[in-house]
Structure formats: structure tokens, C-alpha cells
Amino acid sequence: MMERLESWKLALERLRSAQSADWAEAGRLVAEIARMSTDVTLRQAAEQALPVLRQAVDNDDHSVALAAQRRISVVLEVIHDLTAPRFGRRNAMPKKLSSEDRARKVLGLPLAVQLTCEDINQAYRRAAKGMHPDHGGSAQAFIDLAAARDILIHPGAHKDA
């Protein structure tokens, strides 16, 4: 797929930089892109460019030629975005939370702060008021809350899950 994108990019660059544009050739190329591209944005850009490119064939109107050039530029910009190298960890999965960090989230406690037993119990009592089965909460949520409190009070007794 990347090779096809590169060849389309080169062909569009050549057409765009030509002294007199061959709008029929540009139309054929953009129609191929619209038909064969797997990327939704690229396909949409190509489909939107087609009517303008077809109108530019055998048309001496300068404004139509400018519009066709702009449409070619939009398609080319989308191809550039798709072929640009990606740096960093954009598509990396988020780091898994430890069981202690998950317990802190359940209780609504900050992740990187030293906690006392009293802090943990206060957070537990505050959260338990709304999650208790007698007050409209679910039994499973209440059990999870109690387990989170136990993990934080006795951190060495539980292994990471």
C-alpha cells in the first residue's frame, strides 16, 4: 500500500509542477485513487476533486484551473500525511496500571502521593456511601471497593494482577 501511495504522490507532484496541466491525466489518476484507496480521508478528497478536474478538461477558464490545482493540492496533502514518518509512541498501548494504582483509582485517590491508613479509610467511606447495595449501588461494585481498600492497606499481601 505504501508503494502505491508513493507512486501516486510522485505522479501528482509531476502533474502539479508541469508547465501546462494535463487535467485529463490528473482526472484518471484521481479516479484511480478514489477507486483503490483504503484510506477514507484520501478517498473522500479524491472523490471531491474529480468533478472539478473533469470540468477543467478543455476549459480555458482560469478560475476552474485554479480550483483544479487546489483540489490536486488537497489530495497531495492527504497523501503526504499518510506517507510521513511517524515518531514517538502514538499508537502504543497505554501502560498497564499496577493493582495498587487501580485500587487508588477506584477509591478516587491520587496516584503518586504517600497515603496513610486514615486517608485510605476516609476515601473508602466516602465512596462506599454511594456504592452500598442498600443505597442503590451494586454488590459487585461494593466488593471491588472493599478489595481496593484492602490492597492499599496491605500492599505486600496482594500480587499484581
From TrEMBL:
Superkingdom to which the source organism belongs: Bacteria
InterPro entries, sorted: DnaJ_domain (IPR001623), J_dom_sf (IPR036869)
Record domain J: where: 102-161
Protein name: J domain-containing protein
Species: Bradyrhizobium zhanjiangense
